[in-house]
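Assemble and predict.
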Amino acid sequence: MKLQHLAVIFVIIIVPISLVMASYIQNQIDAIAMQTDYDRTLISATYDAVKAFQLNTVNNKYSNISDSKIRDIEASVNTFYNSLISSMLEYAISIDDLQAYVPAMLFTLYDGYYIYSSYDNVYSTTGTGEDEKVNIKLDGKNFQNGLKPYVYYSAKYRLRNGNIIVVNYTLDNAITVYGDLGSGYITKSGYLINPDYVQNVNEGAKTLTYDGVTIKPEALKEKLITIDDQGTGSTSEGEYYYIYYNSQKIYEDGNGSGRYFIYNDYTKAYINDPEIIEYANSTKAYGSGTVMSTSAFDYYNEAKEFSIWVRDNLGNITQADTIRSEDGITPIGSDNTYLSEDTGNESIFYTDENNDPMLAGSIFNSHRLAVIRKSIETNLMTVISNYHSTTLYDYAMPVIKDEDWYKILNNVSLVTFMQGTSIGYRYYNNYAVITNNINKELAKPESVYVITEKDGYREYHQPGCKELIDGVKNGSLTVIGAYSAASFQRQTVEINESSSQYYYPQALGGKMLTGCYNCIVDATGDYDINDIIDGTIEDYENNQNVIYNSNDIRQIRQTYLTALARERYDLYKSNFDLSDLG
Amino acid sequence: MGDSLITVVAIFLAAILMFVFPLMSLAERTDDISELAVQTATTEFVDDVRTTGKMTLEDYEAYLSEISATGNSFDVEILIQQLDENPGKKTTQADSTKIGENLYYNIYTTQVEEQLDATGRITLKEGDLITVTAKNTNQTISQMLRNFFYMISGNDSYQIAGQHSGVVSVNGSTSER
């Protein structure tokens, strides 16, 4: 055979093979490009939804009230779909088109979570009698999309005497215990801390020591812009001392005036209730004429009492007593794989220095995260696999990565799921997690900032900031106070449709207040916040090597632990019963 | 006789293999790179508008010149969905400051360009949505080569496209800065 023949035969064989290969590879490339495109779309839509939720709650003074929160969440869902539609102009035109591909949205909040998905609208109006009217027909045809009922982060435990109790968890160390411990049904709420740390309690002066740090009443101050006259739109700016009364901020109008107001709709709503006025006046005794917040003292004092009660009554509960959520009767016993975190035979609610719930790595926290994760996992799996829609796709929950679980379990966050759209030879199935760091739901250890002053110039820092610790240690920085991250956000005052004003609540005394470049802007050089809480900062690689001892960081710890306690104590908690204490 | 025929065929095949295929794949890579550039420019432009709350004529023109620098002509579609300040006209419950609860009205490319020409800027507010899509209108080399083998016709026969959208997160300032 001639060389030309061979060449032609070679080409005839190779060209079809390479064409098929090329088209196959091109398909794969297209599928991946499409998948990346959907990922991007989903993440940006989720981000927009979180942003809308943030803007709506920051400007909503009632954002913690359940009805108002549902409204904010539904507005956020709308924003999600609006954003999704606008980035998928070519594929979708209405929310209904997209709902088939979004089987669930998960909103994790402070003490529980909402799932936005389809549910059966089973109310029937065919019967005439009152009973017939609620003729439940679970035929899967009458579905509609909406928020499903709120689910608390809860777990059941079997006590040694056979009784079953329920513990509601939150994203921090607050818990609520329900049930019959043997002497009647009780409900108790409180913060779980190590009660041994709280000493020298002085009820009269409202002081105590927590782990060697003195906690005492403090004066809190912030800036407000108030509208004086709605007609002309004239406003005035002022700095006011405030305290919390029933989770509501009460400001004193002019220092020592004895007149108090609530900031409502950008105006001062003066308080006439003699009970509140008497309480506010009584706090002046702790300081020099200004209203003083005793929240931090109350936090540690009440938490001590609660923790001792929990230690005495629930101290012997271990992971083995947790009841399976599937049947609600049998404890998990020796099944170490049921929960994602195995705490073995350790007592979960017995708090001491080896199990300090203020620290992220404690037994209580490991168990708490595992229980919350189990609850979310079980519910999401059911919701997604039962999702009703018009497509023939089989919905299934994707595997959520461990680092995403970490984000979900430690933050107020939004998780969205999208699946069922065709990408090449496969179907798309992915999720997006966006955390919401600016909210009024949760005081995370990281979201309390310390304000310092140097030469009349103020900066705010993360408590673990190296510059802050060094500055305070050598005396070049003066600690002014500490507030939650939301106090450093820009607030909007809407005067009328066309004009609005902005202010920063903590920019006081006409001084510049900026974020520290070392920690707020670039957080790489920070020390672990758990080290600040427990008292000494050690080398990351070698635990024995103490970099700063408890004396070096005493002042920062005192400010920080007071502020963290105050911010947690003053959060609005809908499901918190403190009436039983004391 | 048979020999010279097969030689002609072989030369023909060799020409296709050695010139046309590499040219096609090169042209396609060029389009991929153009697409990447257009996508990046579009994302930057939209994110700029989202984070500053305003669209200026200079920004828009810079964006247009950046995408035409790929050597193609583009059809740019802008869609701005503005939050209606008067939600009470349609519903009684909605709150004008609540993002996601109220209605939008749309502004399209021609209106955007008209306003940019007249005032030099468009100011947006928190919660408005903006979408920008750019598609090429000319025939790229790879499209021409492909048309040599098979034709794609219809409206959406573009090869290079970039699209980005999102919610505006600040109120644009009305000052000149």
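The interface with chain A takes residues 3, 6-7, 9-10, 13-14, 17, 79, 81, 85, 96-101, 104, 126-127, 129-131, 133, 163-167, 169, 171 of chain B (CB under 8 Å).
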